[in-house]
């Protein structure tokens, strides 16, 4: 019998509740469709009804995705000592960490984070009257060969795809296609994350990632053939598994889009269940605004009939609060968008 870590037993909230596999899955959208009107409509419906969809014919070379997955496998196959040489710390939150060795023991995974714009400016602390900025930079792992160059190439493709998707989402909200551009340009705080979920001896007690919403604008996720991502279906609040589709990317709307759209599109809960036999790899790209962005409902989308539902918040402060809380101050509650909800 495996010894079960008491941390997993206490956290009832963190245990997988039953999920369903069959039934309606998230929509699959073909981005090569000729009719832009049709595409915009499909994306708008998916954002409204699911908050999640998959895209195919997205233009990201399959070969690059495979090279990323391969590099990720090689990186994580190293010893923990080797991986910790590119480990993150309080000052530089990019790089490697395993959840077992930080205070966040709940998630059954290890991670490697890499910012899209290196270096990128962020506030030093989440405190409102502290105006100091710092720079986040990426580590340069020596193994596997050309790891950094491969990630950089991948990030470039993820940015192109995100901008394309943000244009389609803007159009679906009746906005100018470039409406969101000003929030990202140059200073975006986006990053790519390599996730490794090792086989878990007690999958009924643990989750790879507990239920959560993504805080940024969009997430573009590549998952391998093992599967395990589950999405809270808006129609009935059931957990539904996202079936791995080769070469498809899974897209979800984050909290920032929920606020910009004044709740027209909602950020949806999701989680990852673990597997007792197979390890799993996934690669999300988080499209995040520039630190100076004041996130609030867009003027065009509020009116007397539909007043603003949120007060403005500063993205950089929000981000630093969330990042810091992962490994510094476990007792403080993470900032959430509902903290900015207007009565
Ligand atoms: C995340 C996430 C899903 C996955 O990292 O925010 O939801 O399948 N990951 O790894
Ligand atoms: Ni997520």
TrEMBL record:
Coiled coil segments of this chain: none
A Pfam family assignment: DIOX_N
PROSITE patterns: FE2OG_OXY (PS51471)
Domain Fe2OG dioxygenase: 188-289
GO molecular function: dioxygenase activity; metal ion binding
SUPFAM superfamilies tied to this protein: Clavaminate synthase-like
Signal peptide: none
Matches recorded under InterPro entries: DIOX_N, IPNS-like_FE2OG_OXY, IPNS-like_sf, Oxoglu/Fe-dep_dioxygenase_dom
Gene3D superfamilies, sorted: B-lactam Antibiotic, Isopenicillin N Synthase, Chain
Keywords for the protein's UniProt record, in alphabetical order: Iron, Metal-binding, Oxidoreductase
Membership in a protein family: Belongs to the iron/ascorbate-dependent oxidoreductase family.
The protein, known as: Fe2OG dioxygenase domain-containing protein
Organism this protein belongs to: Clitoria ternatea (Butterfly pea)
